[in-house]
Specification:
The chain has 291 residues and is α/β, with parallel strands linked by helices. Helix content is 31%, strand content 19%. It has one domain: 3-Layer(aba) Sandwich (Rossmann fold). The protein is built from 9 helices and 15 strands. Strands 3-2-1-4-5-7-12 form a 7-stranded parallel beta sheet, with helices on both faces. The chain has a two-stranded parallel sheet with strand order 6-15. Strands 8-11 form a two-stranded parallel sheet. The protein is globular and about 55 Å long. It binds NADP nicotinamide-adenine-dinucleotide phosphate. The site of NADP nicotinamide-adenine-dinucleotide phosphate has 28 residues, from helix 1, strand 2, helix 4, strand 5 and strand 8. NADP nicotinamide-adenine-dinucleotide phosphate (NAP) binds next to helix 1, strand 2, helix 4, strand 5 and strand 8.
Length: 291
């Protein structure tokens, strides 16, 4: 009996690495849809399988002997996909999972890394897990439908936990690298919309805590610092000694003020953030949480 990570991209790999260190005895199955990733992933896994989660026979093989499934999948690569692409990845995979459940009696725990985008725009207000989602249409609606499909799979024998993640940052996805191209540029709007972030080590750490603690239901996984886009960008450019952005006002594509996401439930469940703030001030690392 072990754990399967379906979708080993940025977060799935970070989780696999933490598990190798923190749970060396756990039998780990990883999946990829691309044979060429074999070399990159093989050392992290006891078993590495080619698996498109929309393919019933491949998904059944990936989950058959394990008690826990973590779904970290997302439309791959840098390509921007429309809502239909999201639907193919998430909804079709979870429909496939639902159809297989009668043949997966050992599967006791399903954990999915969803997104805080299901909250939609809250005019800058705070939201928590009790706030009604306002996903609208498009990508957010697909993610909400995905959550609902999964939630319906929970019962007394099988826990379902949905971690709603903020935007990920961390090694390989450093904010300074992502923002430096804005130096000296004009941006429409005033940048006042809130963004929410979580370090990839905390996202992976929360996944392990969810596993260990048998969490169920929805848990926001965000750091302590919702931040307005202009503060995020200005701070990063200043730190890099680069020219500031000129916020030129006027309407932007991202209307609204965003939302600030609470992480009280995450903390009440006992998780201590390794990176509560964006600027690298780490919390004290309990030995059990060292990535
Ligand atoms: N990145 C963020 O800022 C962010 C924010 C909020 C929530 N999340 C959630 O966090 C999770 C992980 O994000 P990430 O940034 O690690 O994504 P990622 O780097 O894009 O990795 C996702 C992986 O999913 C695999 N995949 C795609 N389609 C699949 C399918 N049909 N069946 C099985 N596997 C499939 C791909 O792996 P192969 O190419 O090897 O097949 C891909 O590398 C996602 O569920 C995402 O919704 C991410």
């Amino acid at each position: 009996m072990g754990l399967t990570i379906v979708g080993c991209g940025y977060l799935g790999k970070a989780l696999a690495r933490q598990l190798q260190t923190r749970r060396p005895g756990l039998r780990l199955t990883l999946t990829t849809t691309r044979a060429e990733r074999h070399g990159e992933l093989a050392d992290l896994a006891d078993q590495l399988l080619l698996c498109d989660a929309t393919d019933p026979s491949q998904l059944l093989k990936a989950l058959r002997h394990n008690h826990t499934a973590v779904f970290c999948l997302a439309p791959g690569g840098d390509r921007q996909v429309n809502a239909d692409g999201y639907r193919q990845t998430f909804v079709d995979s979870f429909r496939c999972l639902g159809s297989l459940l009668p043949g997966l009696p050992h599967l006791r725990q399903i954990i999915y890394t969803g997104s805080c985008s299901v909250y939609g725009d809250a005019e800058g207000d705070w939201v928590d897990e009790s706030t009604a989602p306002a996903a609208g249409t498009g990508h957010g609606a697909v993610l909400l439908e995905s959550e609902r499909l999964l939630t319906a799979m929970g019962n007394s024998e099988r826990r379902v936990c949905i971690l709603r993640l903020a935007a990920l940052h961390g090694p390989g996805r450093e904010l300074d690298d992502r923002l430096k191209g804005l130096a000296g540029r004009d941006r429409t709007g005033d940048g006042r919309s809130f963004s929410n972030w979580v370090h990839v080590h905390d996202a992976a750490g929360a996944l392990i805590a969810a596993m260990d603690g048998a969490w169920s239901g929805v848990v926001n996984v965000v750091n302590d610092e919702p931040i307005r886009m202009r503060d995020l960008v200005d701070r990063s450019l200043k730190r890099q000694l680069l020219d500031p952005v000129n916020w030129s006002g006027g309407p932007t594509l991202e209307s609204g003020n965003g939302r600030r996401i609470r992480n009280d439930r995450l903390k009440a469940l006992g998780y201590r953030l390794l990176h509560p703030m964006l600027d690298g001030q780490s919390g004290v690392l309990p030995v059990s949480q060292v990535p």
